[in-house]
Specification:
9-stranded mixed beta sheet; 17 strands; single chain; Rossmann fold; Dihydrodipicolinate Reductase, domain 2; alpha/beta; 10 helices; binds nicotinamide-adenine-dinucleotide; 6-stranded parallel beta sheet
Length: 341
């Protein structure tokens, strides 16, 4: 698969490395062109990554008829819709970073554009491809703890007293240029993982808390109670107001036959407790040929879905549901009551 990567920032680099890792392993995958509005940055990255073709915007690459099968959109959030529509209109498959969009109207337009063009729309929801989350899913599928009744999914996010990103990534915390609060930015990973583990949420009741030291008008910490169609009641906490930087998030699920506990600490550790004793399952995060394992598995899934003409695991349609749940969380915070999904 030949790719045009749009946005040579943090995520663009992770996708580049994933494609490179697959190429080194012998897969038919390479980056055909790189697009970024920041010309100095683009020049630097193209030289570092040895990508010959560069363009200041996606339409220039498409007009130039770059020989590519797919477009990877790793740009600010509010640009995802126009990128996906342009790529689909040119007959290219689309791998778009999370959140796929900031509104359901934009998500629907992206899905419709890709359907019309008969191309694949996949969301780069990397958390779904992490070994630890996949190990939890496998343990649940194997029935190790029976029916999940309750639990908590509390991934860490980082402590920044100001909720500001440094340097060229400052936009991430600025809604005027496509940024968002932590519930959208990182909560969307958690919501997608929660859906993978427990099925579709039917109701959300979310609250926001912050200290007077928190220097952003956006949400600091969101605590949400999620009800799932299968009957499970799960709490989720996402915070941008943690002190220090320590990985202490976890997933604890309490089932009819056992308890499962994933510590995202260092080392990542998954344990299953039942009346028969305790089982430890290895699931440390991996790198493959210098790339994050989750991004490599994600790219593989994209290539496989295109080759097999099937919906990818994290399809646009699937991740539209994740976005809907996150937006319902904001609605719950605003109204002060639970919101049905
Ligand atoms: N899956 C993950 O773990 C993960 C991690 C970080 C970011 N992300 C997501 O990736 C996306 C990008 O975030 P980032 O952290 O890489 O940001 P970033 O600021 O590091 O990179 C964004 C790049 O896009 C470029 N850009 C801006 N407007 C453009 C345009 N119109 N055309 C082409 N290029 C343009 C910028 O110059 C910049 O180089 C976001 O959706 C973000 O939420 C995902």
């Amino acid at each position: 698969m030949k790719l045009i990567i749009v946005g040579a920032g943090w995520a663009g680099e992770a996708h580049f490395k994933a494609a490179e890792a697959l190429r080194r392993q012998g897969a038919d995958c390479r980056v055909a062109a790189l697009v970024d509005v920041d010309q100095d940055h683009l020049r630097r990255k193209a030289a570092e990554w040895r990508v010959r073709l560069t363009y200041p915007d996606l339409s220039a690459a498409l007009d130039d008829q770059v020989d590519a099968d797919a477009v990877v959109l790793a740009t600010p959030h509010h640009l995802h819709r126009e990128g996906a529509e342009a790529a689909a209109a040119a007959g290219k498959h689309v791998l778009v970073e999370k959140p796929m969009a900031l509104t359901l109207a934009d998500a629907d337009a992206m899905i419709a554009a890709c359907d019309r063009a008969g191309v694949c729309l996949m969301v780069a929801e990397s958390a779904r491809y992490r070994l630890a989350n996949l190990a939890v899913r496998e343990a649940l599928d194997a029935g190790k703890i029976g029916q999940v009744l309750s639990g908590r999914i509390h991934p860490i996010t980082r402590g920044r007293h100001t909720y500001m990103y440094p340097g060229r990534r400052a936009w991430l915390a600025d809604p005027a240029v496509g940024g968002s609060g932590i519930w959208m930015l990182n909560g969307i990973h958690t919501m997608s993982v929660a859906r993978m583990l427990l099925g579709e949420p039917t109701r959300i009741y979310a609250r926001e808390v912050h200290s007077d030291k928190f220097q952003s008008p956006l949400e600091a910490t969101v605590v949400a109670l999620l009800s799932f169609a299968g009957g499970a009641e799960i709490t989720v906490t996402i915070s941008a107001e943690l002190h220090g930087y320590k990985r202490f998030g976890d997933i604890a699920l309490f089932g009819s036959d056992g308890t499962l506990h994933l510590r995202r600490d260092d080392p990542v550790e998954l344990a299953v407790y039942t009346d028969d004793g305790e089982e430890r399952i290895e699931c440390a995060e991996d790198t493959i040929e210098g790339a994050a394992g989750a991004f490599v598995r994600q790219m593989k899934e994209f290539m496989a879905a295109v080759a097999e003409a099937r919906e990818p695991l994290t399809s646009g349609r699937s991740e539209r549901r994740t976005l809907a749940a996150i937006l319902a969380g904001y609605e719950s915070i605003r109204t002060g009551g639970p919101v049905d999904l």
